[in-house]
Amino acid sequence: MPAEVAVLQPTEIGAAIASHPPLMQEEAREQYLGREIEWLLPFSNGLVEHGQARLTFYLNARAPWMIVGAVSLADYPWLKSLPAKEMLRVRGRIRKIDAMAVYLDIAHLSHEAQTTSTATMRA
Fold first, then answer.
1. Considering the chain, what percentage of its residues have pLDDT values greater than 70?
2. Which of 6, 60, 61, 67 is most buried, by CB atoms within 10 Å?
3. What are the pLDDT digits (tens) for 18-73?
C-alpha cells in the first residue's frame, strides 16, 4: 500500500497550481498525475454513455473547478436515482488536470451521509 504523503483538498491543489505563472502551470499539474486520492465530494451532474456513468462533482458554486470521472453503471446502479448534492466518497487516481477540471480514474464510490468535504492524497 502506498505511503500517505499529504492530506489536500482538491481546491488546495488548484490553488497550488494557480500560484505558478501561467506558462509554468502545466508542469505544476504534472506533479499530481498518478496520485491516489480519496475525496468526499458533492455529486453534481452526470450522464450515461455505453454503460458508463460519467460523473461531475462541482466543489462549490463560486469555484468553476470540477472533478470528473466515470464508473460502470452495472457496478453502481444506485447512481441512477442519486439526487444532486449527495455526498460521495470517491477513491481513485488522478489521470489528468487541466485549467477547469481534475480527471480521475475512479476505483471505488460509496454514498456518504456526511456534508463536510475531506480529501486524502497518497503518493
1. 82
2. 67
3. 999 999 999 999 999 999 999 999 999 999 999 999 999 998 766 668 999 999 99
Angle at 43 between CA 38 and CA 45, to 5 degrees: 130
Q: Output the pTM of the full model.
A: 0.83
Pairing of strands 101-112, 63-72: parallel
Other Cβ atoms less than 10 A from the Cβ of 50: the count is 7
40, 87 Cβ separation under 8 angstroms: yes
Cell numbers for 45:
451532474
Q: How far apart are CA 99 and CA 84, in angstroms?
A: 24
d(CA 51, CA 55): 13
Distance of alpha carbon 63 from alpha carbon 49, whole angstroms = 27
Neighbouring residues of 83: CB distance < 8 A, sequence distance ≥ 6: 43
Cell numbers that stand for 102 in this block: 481534475
